[in-house]
UniProtKB/TrEMBL annotation:
Pfam families: Rieske_2. This is Nitrite reductase small subunit NirD. The keyword tRNA-binding does not apply. Residues 12-109 form the Rieske domain. It comes from Streptomyces enissocaesilis. The gene is nirD. InterPro entries: NirD, Rieske-like_NirD, Rieske_2Fe-2S, Rieske_2Fe-2S_sf. PROSITE patterns: NIRD, RIESKE. Keywords: 2Fe-2S, Iron, Iron-sulfur, Metal-binding, Nitrate assimilation, Oxidoreductase.
Amino acid sequence: MTLQLRIDDSWFTACELSALTPGRGVAALLPDGRQAALFTDRAGRPYAIDNRDPFSGAQVLSRGLTGSVNGRPFVASPLLKQRFDLETGLCLDDETVTVQTFPVRVGVS
């Protein structure tokens, strides 16, 4: 099984689903040269957001710590610790900042 991201109008296979460990992120290079940070939660639900931390400019969100607040899954940047909602991309610590999220699906290899 693979994790696929919707990029523009097509689906892109990012990695094997088995490459993801709940609570840990993986970075994937997208066809246009950007990076996505991929995650799964303990229930196996996948998420994909832009890997670029908008506060530092570094490609590090895939290395962040995951958690949840009020039932919302997030990743905390490993550099400055801002938390980003994995479903919406909204920064939970500064609501004027967001990161891009990508629609995801599990596909058959």
